Every structure is written in structure tokens, then in C-alpha cells.
Amino acid sequence: MAPGRCSAWLNRTCVGGDSAIEPYLVTHHQLLAHAAAVQVYKTKYQESQNGLIGITLIVTWSVPTSDNKFDQKAAERAIDFMYGWFMDPLTSGEYPQSMRSLVRTRLPKFTKAQSKQLIGSYDFIGLNYYSAGYVTDAPVLSNARPTYQTDSLVDMSFMRDGKPIGLQPYVTIFHWDVPQALEDEYGGFLSPRIV
């Protein structure tokens, strides 16, 4: 999140901001700017430069803490809120269903024209992958103030049963076939190059 911009109730050092809305607005406009830049590049420069244009996404992979269906769904939501938040608009023209259901009116909507411009606005997808975490389902608290960090209704930990998910405490080295998992989930759309 932007340094110094958050709701004051979340962090007293914040000088302004709304943690319930601003992360979604920023991402929405970032995606629109990306699609506009891709359109300009593909229309004016790609043929003469014989170049490719893409987007790089940060991915923190989520592994269910247990085999129960609630943790399984929590892992799906966590991936939606991290990766799908950006990738779904690029492949389907809208945010993941889980985000639309949970964030509701705080999540901006794309117009039909914007959705059309977003879909396929890449030649490749870059993955900035550092770590993974165990996730559990976190029920809604009636007194909770909404933020991007709580909207997904998941709790993440790098430990399960006293054992870390990977070799290091923060940037955990976790043996997981992320590109294959992403291909399984998104490969049916436009099968981009993943780097």
C-alpha cells in the first residue's frame, strides 16, 4: 500500500487515505493505464519494433492449512485477491467473483469498452514470486472495518504445526509448481508466455 496513505484508525502515522477503497481504485486505474499503453504500443510501435509488451504481477502463493473445504476456499480467495485481482480483468474483463461478492460497491466496475480493451492486453505475463503461505478461513467480524487486507476473509501464516512452509522466515523458499498451477487456472484463456 502507498506509504503514509491509509485510514488513521489502521495506523496513526498515516496522513490521509481510505484503506477500504483506495487500494481498489489504484489497481483499477493501474489496469486501465496498462490497457491504454498496450493499445498505443500495439497500434503505433509493435510492428516496426517487432517487440512484445506484458505485465509483471506479484504472486504470493497460498496453500490451504488443512484439507477442510473452508481452508480450500480460503486459498482460492487468497489467490483471487493477490493474482486474480490483476489477471482476471486481463483475461475475462472483470474482477474475480469472490472479490465482487466480498468487496461489493467498494470495488470499481469496468465499462464494456474498458473490459474489451483489457482482455488480452499482454504478450507475456511476468511473475514476481517470492514466497507462499498457509491460509485458513477467517470469518467475518461484525465490528471489523474493511480493508484490502481483511476483505478476502483469510488468515495467512508461514508456519503450520510449528514448521515453516519454506527454508527462510520471510522470503520462504517453497517447492511449488506455480507456473503449472497458474496454467491450470488461467491457461484456458489466452495461454500467455509466463516469465
UniProtKB/TrEMBL annotation:
GO molecular function, one term: beta-glucosidase activity
TM regions (residue ranges): none
BP GO terms, sorted: carbohydrate metabolic process
Pfam family for this entry, one: Glyco_hydro_1
Coiled coil: none
InterPro entries (alphabetical): GH, Glyco_hydro_1
Family, as annotated: Belongs to the glycosyl hydrolase 1 family.
Listed name of the protein: Beta-glucosidase
Species the sequence originates in: Lupinus luteus (European yellow lupine)
